[in-house]
């Protein structure tokens, strides 16, 4: 028997500077990016009144609020990236850890968080619950 569900995706940009520690190449120098963050949630039920999995406006608000902490800053000087490398992989995981608890009140599961530095490269973080 097939199980059906929906995935919702919201995207938001932010700008920050970083330098990758322990990296051999140009990215070890301070430089900036216009990042794109992508949040994907999934759910298998629709609300009775509006027949939505979740409101895009609410999802965008949650993502924006978390990105405000990273926007127009030097990531290497911003916790937790003052201790861990401010790589796209770590930014995606950080956002997951910030956003997942905020979704508990909604009938959705966080599916993935992705960070793109450029349109040609993206790091995606997921956690699979057993």
Automatic annotation (TrEMBL):
Q: Which reaction does it catalyse?
A: 7,8-dihydroneopterin 3'-triphosphate + H2O = 6-carboxy-5,6,7,8-tetrahydropterin + triphosphate + acetaldehyde + 2 H(+)
Q: Which UniProt keywords apply?
A: Lyase, Metal-binding, Queuosine biosynthesis, Zinc
Which metal ions or organic cofactors does this protein require, according to UniProt? Zn(2+)
User: Which Gene3D superfamilies does the protein's record reference?
Assistant: 6-pyruvoyl tetrahydropterin synthase/QueD
Question: Is the keyword Magnesium in the record?
Answer: no
Question: What Pfam family is a match for this entry?
Answer: PTPS
State the name under which the record lists this protein.
6-carboxy-5,6,7,8-tetrahydropterin synthase
Identify the species of origin. Taurinivorans muris
């Amino acid at each position: 028997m097939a199980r059906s569900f929906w995935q919702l995706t919201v995207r938001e940009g932010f700008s920050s500077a970083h330098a990758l520690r322990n990296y051999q190449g140009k990215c070890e120098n301070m430089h900036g990016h216009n990042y794109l963050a992508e949040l994907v949630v999934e759910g298998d039920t629709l609300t009775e009144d509006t027949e939505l999995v979740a409101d895009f406006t609410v999802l965008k608000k949650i993502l924006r609020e978390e990105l405000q902490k990273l926007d127009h800053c030097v990531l290497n000087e911003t916790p937790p990236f003052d201790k861990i490398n401010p790589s796209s992989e770590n930014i995606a995981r950080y956002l997951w850890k910030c956003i997942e608890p905020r979704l508990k009140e909604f009938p959705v599961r966080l599916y993935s968080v992705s960070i793109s530095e450029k349109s040609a490269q993206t790091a995606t973080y997921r956690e699979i619950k057993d």
